[in-house]
Amino acid sequence: MNYNLNKPATVKGVSNYTAFKGLLRLISHEKSKLAVALLATIGTSGLNLLGPLLTAYAIDTYVMQKQYHGVLVYSGILLAVYFASFGINYLQTKLMGTVGQRTLYTLRNAVFHKLQQLPVAFFNQNKAGDLISRVNNDTDKLNQFFSQSLMQFVGSIISMTGAGIFLFSLNVKLGAVALIPALLSLIFTRLLSPWVKKKNAANLKTVGGLSAEIQESLSNFKVVVAFGRRDYFMQRFNEANEKNYTSATAMGIANNVFMPFYSLMASLAQLMILAYGVYLISTGSFTIGLLVSYIAYANYFYSPLRQLAALWANFQTAMAGWERISEILVLENNMGTIETHARQEGAPLLEMQQVHFGYTEDREILHNINLRLEQGKTYALVGPTGGGKTTTASLIARLYDPVKGNVLLDGKDIRSYNAAERTRRIGFILQDPILFTGTVRENILYGNEEYENYTNDQLEEVLRAANLEKLLGLFEKGLETPVQSAGEGVSLGQKQLIAFMRAVLRKPDLLILDEATANIDTVTEKLLGEILDKLPATTTRVIIAHRLNTIENADEIFFVNDGAVTNAGSFHQVVDQLMHGNKN
Amino acid sequence: MKQPSGKEKKPSGIFTLLRPYKGLITLLVLFALMGNSLNLWLPKIIGQGIDDFSHGHFVYKPLIIKFGLAALLIFVFTYLQNIIQTYASEKVAKNLRERLAEKISRQSYAWMEQSNPSRLLTNLTADVDSIKLFVSQAIVSLVSSIFIIIGASILLLTIDWKLALVVIAAIPIMGTAFFFVLKKVRTLFMKSREIMDRLNKVINESILGAALINVVNAQQREYEKFLDANGKALDFGLSILKLFAGLIPVIVFTANMTGLAILALGGRFVIDGSMTIGDFAAFNSYLTLLIFPILVIGFMSNVIAQATASYQRISGVLHSPDMLETGSLVKNLEGDITCEHVSLSYGEKPVLKDISFSVKAGSKIAIIGPTAAGKTQLLYLLMRLIKPDEGTIRMDGEDIAAYESESFHQQVGFVFQDSVVFNMSVRENIAFSDVVTDASLEKAITTAEVKEFTDQLPEKLSTTVSERGTSLSGGQKQRLMLARALALNPKILLLDDFTARVDTRTERKILANVHRNYPDLTLVSVTQKIGAVTHYDQIILLMQGEMIAAGTHEELMEKSPDYVQIFNSQQSTSNYELQS
């Protein structure tokens, strides 16, 4: 399955409308807050208009007639209005901001949650930096729109509609003329919006690219230093930076195209009203006084329209961000759980039946694999690098599904087990040990609910029972030794020890070790061997290793080469094969 | 050689950042002011037209020309202003990123280890973006707002200074509110940025650890970790919001109150005859003119606060001292290595204690020892990735710190324990240096037996590979790493557990190739397998940072019980390996 976000298989232009609908669905639980915020917006706009009206009235009637008492009364009323507007204004800003922040929160959670549901293949096809940019940057674009623009947007549309109706009710013909430029702006907007959105999308993509580049360079910094290639670091960075600059400038120019045009249209409207108004007056159906106020009213229509121009650009950015987020949200994990009760009798713990697999469609890695793993036995997979050992192991643990054929766990299709059940039964120590920043304790209990609430003493007891205490002794502060996900504070061998403890503590029925001890010294390795020997008699072990001593005690050895798995026979035969390449 | 452009400035305000862009900013402000003043002219033209009409000498043509011209000019000025605004802000952002990257690139590996890459990522993205927003939105608004406020204040003062003082008295109140909020909000912004770093880290770790998360079914746990960080981000966002949600109504309210004061006081003045009604009307209309820019400043204070916080973070990186001291010695290495009483610790934890040994040019030395003995660190010291706390490392008799960095690294090849693959073609990954020639590339590829697996790739050596891509197996990546080091045609080759992931047969073939094709190479090999190094000139046994023993295989077998123990642990298999 294609999970590459930057090379989507289905290129489909989503209209603003459908995209916006999808977005609204996601924040539907904020409906009541949005409604209150909307009311508050209308309230603020109303009160904002009321203030000047009252002031004007007070001046006209009381100041002019020198009745100071009336002035004071109106001042009192104004004070009340201003207090009310203070409260509502606070409410509106706060509610809208809260909706924005909560939307950001919900969106980020949704994206991250989706990321957690996607299979390993997804992460192999996408760059960390780009994903980070989608989770952090693109969601923030939506937040900005919600917290800053949405209410202004609504407010502007309300004022515009009101002013528009007013213009028509005063004089239909003049109203029609006054709104022609607005129609032109609308057409202009419709024509240009796709282009503007494209520029926005292109820019967000380069932001993702820049982020990916930085991420990669920073994590590979030691090679950059060791090979004296700081210039390379700069060159790659500059390229991404330049790309971002170009696309951002193009986006800025596109986003800013609306505002000047809308202003021009607003001016045009004034001119047209004047010209047509003069004509109307000359035909005797209009008066100068009305024309003067009509021009002023037209401003009530065009000022919010101008504001819309700026907001519209924000909207385009938000939609482009939303599109990038949706690209993740619409992805489906193609490795769901299937319903089946079919169970083969007398089946081994795990069986691979005529399994074919390739990471990409055009290149098959494993060809027709048949494998039976019995309970309690130890198996070894040997063979040259790149032969398909890790891939075979990954299929046993269902990191991927076969393209053809079946993997059966206890005689039942492995796809019919839910993730919790499957991972409880199958343990997999990966070739590259993975640590999370934290302590040794947190890392060996990672994903282990059983011991999560144990005290350190209790946990040490458990470790002792599992013969792991000696390994823990290799860490100077025991369970509380701090470790980092990256960096050299912990050696690769130590990381492998932690991964080993983590897997053993989970007590799986089937334990896969993929070169799990490759960087551990041979003395400690012996210790690990003893621990493996002391696992419950029912535990099946699958060991991938290059060191022959680690596979010496295997019950059965498989030779994996060129994507084919063959029974290798006795240990001596295997050694012969590996050392001298005598395959037959 | 590049000299650090060390203009050591004290961390300065965000406005100093704009100094190099004076020209652009001036132009920007100029266009904005021109557009705005022309905008004030439009109503006048219309008014004049109406006046003309009521006086009966209305002519369409000059009016339309005048008006059209003004409208077009406004269009041009606004668009130009917008373009310059975009251009200036993007330019500032781009250059700032460049400066940051340049600074980072000149740092040592140790610095990178200390500073948090997730934080650097936020610095280069979100932090720079806030500054960009500041340039594109805040500057024009601020300048024109201040312009209008000053202008309107002067006008007010000329009309009636007593009333004007009432209005102007409101400014310190608003100023205090701004000051109070900005002061509080800055720390909040700083903290919310730190949460952003944390989010980056959680996402990053969950991506790198995707396979493990799948294997132990820890999706929920990762999600909770993220929820926790994201929840904190939400809390900070809401606290910041609370402050601004308070600030803006306070500003509006204060402005409204001055309006009210004018009505009450001015009304009084008009009634008792000390002020004309015309002045009063003018006063009121200028007051409305004054309020809008104050509001704009209120909104912009958010952008400014955020940009200031971001700039403070960025300055932290920009002003961190250049740790990379480059020596200037350029010399062709022979390959003699001496370590004299070298010690190293990480924090309080000693990693290497008083290590001394020497290696003759062209000889082969192995370093063995248990996990976490300090083997990798010793190689890092030799590679100059880190500096010893005590002691000296010499190559050809010179302190390695004296060598010019680039030429030094071009003569010392390093094969890291974990594979680092760049997202580019296999060939580019191997030819990762300027000094690689076609011949040296070819030789490296043959020696590391790279073709054996690249021939199966769709585009052979030109196939693009990636770090987490599934295109290469662990052993193949390690061979690629070896080829990368060999392509330098190095005098000294440092191998860090190179053979761990490579099958025995290929390993032997490759090592034999290395010995044959690079006969003069000084080889320092960290390894777990004694069998492969028994014929080496020297074997050093490291345990917990201490050099337990050194000598040839035979010598160590005689005098070091620890060595014998390791040797015995490998016996069962070494037998087979030794047979052939």
Indicate the topology.
The complex is a heterodimer of chains A (584) and B (580).
Chain A: H1 16-26, H2 31-63, H3 68-117, H4 120-125, H5 128-170, H6 172-219, H7 221-226, H8 230-255, H9 258-282, H10 288-329, E1 350-357, E2 366-373, E3 378-382, H11 389-396, E4 404-409, E5 412-413, H12 419-425, E6 426-429, E7 438-439, H13 440-444, H14 456-465, H15 469-472, E8 482-483, H16 492-505, E9 510-514, H17 522-533, E10 540-544, E11 556-561, E12 564-567, H18 571-580
Parallel strand pairs in A: 3-10, 3-11, 6-9, 9-10
Antiparallel strand pairs in A: 1-2, 1-4, 4-5, 7-8, 11-12
Helix pairs in contact in A: 1-10, 2-3, 2-5, 3-5, 5-6, 5-10, 6-8, 6-9, 6-10, 9-10
Chain B: H1 22-54, H2 60-105, H3 109-114, H4 117-159, H5 161-208, H6 210-215, H7 219-271, H8 277-318, E1 337-346, E2 349-359, E3 364-368, H9 375-382, E4 390-395, E5 398-399, H10 405-411, E6 412-415, E7 424-425, H11 426-430, H12 438-447, H13 451-454, E8 464-465, H14 474-486, E9 492-496, H15 504-517, E10 522-526, E11 538-543, E12 546-551, H16 553-559, H17 561-569, H18 571-579
Parallel strand pairs in B: 3-10, 3-11, 6-9, 9-10
Antiparallel strand pairs in B: 1-2, 1-4, 4-5, 7-8, 11-12
Helix pairs in contact in B: 1-2, 1-4, 2-4, 4-5, 4-8, 5-7, 5-8, 7-8, 12-14, 16-17
Biggest sheet details of chain A: 6 strands, mixed
Shape by Cα distribution of chain B: elongated
CATH level 1 name of the largest domain in chain A: Alpha Beta
- The Cα radius of gyration of chain B reads 36 Å
Query: Helices and strands of chain B: which structural class?
Result: alpha/beta
The largest contact between protein chains, plus residue counts on each side, is: A-B, 174 and 175 residues
* Relative helix content of chain A: 55-70%
The CATH topology of the largest domain in chain B is what? Rossmann fold
Q: Which overall shape of chain A is indicated by the principal axes computed on the Cα atoms?
A: elongated
SS summary, helix count of chain B: 18
* CATH architecture title of the largest domain in chain B: 3-Layer(aba) Sandwich
Distance between the termini of chain B: 51 Å
- Please work out how many helical segments of chain A DSSP would assign: 18
Fraction of residues in β-strands of chain A: 5-15%
GO cellular component, one term (chain B): plasma membrane
InterPro entries (chain B): AAA+_ATPase, ABC1_TM_dom, ABC1_TM_sf, ABC_transporter-like_ATP-bd, ABC_transporter-like_CS, P-loop_NTPase, Type_1_exporter
Membrane topology (chain B): Multi-pass membrane protein
Keywords (chain B): ATP-binding, Cell membrane, Membrane, Nucleotide-binding, Transmembrane, Transmembrane helix, Transport
